[in-house]
């Protein structure tokens, strides 16, 4: 299915949102919870799966939707349809601080592989599925990068990142080593595997985990500086414990230290 051609504009710096302009009867699909605002003439409709119509019949649609469940996403997505005779706009926002990346699938050979929670929205006709690992190492030790999403088609898709975005162009045979959670996505020709960091001191005292991702070119790789899982871990670690004690209250300064650094909770 040929994807709808949509126009867009990205607003903001650290908390971005994308505004998509739809011609009459054009459709954009989005993950649940990403909607921000829309013009009055746009109709919202919940659809089963991604609405790409690449799977025919009830069994095909159930299989397509079931794949979404494996990536931790909902069985359903939301379609936004312009029912007006003139152009109308709908906007979608990032769930946490970072950047929104427009992915033109025609420039990437019709396929882009990304982290399972990074997809934001896409033109109708773009297929959102899963990219299973064919290597045992990835499956056993890949962590966040084990089951990834694949975005296929010939239209525009949008993914969001956490923190600052880095874009790396890898030459043939060039290798980039990345924390698995810091991977946003990469083009289909990039080879992806998991490698052991090695060394007893690194493993026990390094604090960076036991494995990292090795990405081999040629291709394009997007890397984020702040994965949501890392942000969530820091928040959980700093949260008050039972009885109202924070992480720092067991130190020598205790509550005084929190007061001095401006982190005192009342």
Task: Give an overview of the whole structure.
It is a single chain. With 266 residues, the chain is an alpha+beta fold. It has helices spanning 57-70, 136-141, 200-205, 228-238, 255-260; strands at 7-11, 17-22, 27-30, 35-38, 42-48, 76-82, 88-93, 100-104, 111-114, 119-123, 127-131, 148-152, 156-160, 165-170, 175-178, 183-187, 191-196, 211-216, 219-224. Strands 5-6-3-10-13-8 form a six-stranded antiparallel β-sheet. A hairpin with a 5-residue loop joins strand 1 and strand 2. Residues 139-145 have low confidence and may be disordered.
Layout: helices, strands, pairs:
Layout (H helix, E strand, L loop, with lengths): L6 E5 L5 E6 L4 E4 L4 E4 L3 E7 L8 H14 L5 E7 L5 E6 L6 E5 L6 E4 L4 E5 L3 E5 L4 H6 L6 E5 L3 E5 L4 E6 L4 E4 L4 E5 L3 E6 L3 H6 L5 E6 L2 E6 L3 H11 L16 H6 L6
Antiparallel strand pairs: 1-2, 2-7, 3-6, 3-10, 4-7, 5-6, 8-13, 9-12, 9-16, 10-13, 11-12, 14-19, 15-18, 16-19, 17-18
Distance between the termini: 57 Å
Q: How big a fraction of the residues is strand?
A: 35-45%
Largest sheet: 6 strands, antiparallel
Spans with pLDDT under 50 lasting ≥5 residues?
139-145
Q: Helical element count?
A: 5
Give me the side-by-side strand order of the main sheet: 5-6-3-10-13-8
Shape: globular
Structural class: alpha+beta
Q: What is the number of strand segments?
A: 19
Q: Give me the Rg, rounded.
A: 21 Å
SSE sequence, one letter per element: EEEEEHEEEEEEHEEEEEEHEEHH
- Residues in helices, as a percent range: 10-25%
């Amino acid at each position: 299915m040929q994807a709808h051609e949509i126009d867009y504009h990205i607003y903001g710096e650290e908390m971005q949102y994308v505004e998509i302009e739809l011609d009459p009867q054009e459709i954009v699909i989005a993950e649940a919870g990403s909607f921000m605002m829309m013009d009055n003439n746009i109709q919202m409709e919940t659809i089963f799966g991604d609405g790409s119509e690449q799977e025919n019949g009830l069994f095909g649609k159930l299989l397509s939707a079931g794949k979404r469940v494996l990536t931790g996403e909902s069985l359903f997505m939301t379609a936004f349809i312009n029912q007006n005779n003139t152009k109308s706009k709908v906007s979608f926002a990032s769930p946490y601080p970072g950047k929104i990346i427009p992915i033109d699938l025609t420039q990437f050979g019709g396929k882009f592989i990304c982290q399972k929670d990074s997809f934001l929205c896409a033109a109708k006709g773009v297929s959102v599925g899963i990219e299973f690992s064919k290597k045992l190492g990835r499956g056993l030790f890949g962590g966040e990068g084990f089951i990834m999403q694949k975005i296929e088609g010939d239209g525009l898709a949008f993914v969001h990142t956490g923190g600052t975005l880095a874009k790396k162009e890898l030459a043939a045979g060039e290798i980039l080593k990345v924390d698995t959670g810091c991977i946003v996505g990469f083009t289909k020709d990039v080879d992806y595997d998991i490698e052991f960091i090695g060394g007893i001191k690194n493993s026990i005292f390094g604090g960076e985990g036991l494995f990292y991702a090795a990405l081999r070119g040629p291709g394009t790789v997007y890397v984020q500086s702040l994965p949501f899982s890392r942000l969530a871990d820091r928040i959980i670690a700093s949260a008050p414990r039972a009885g109202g004690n924070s992480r720092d209250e067991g130190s020598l300064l205790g509550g005084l230290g929190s007061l001095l650094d401006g982190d005192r909770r009342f």
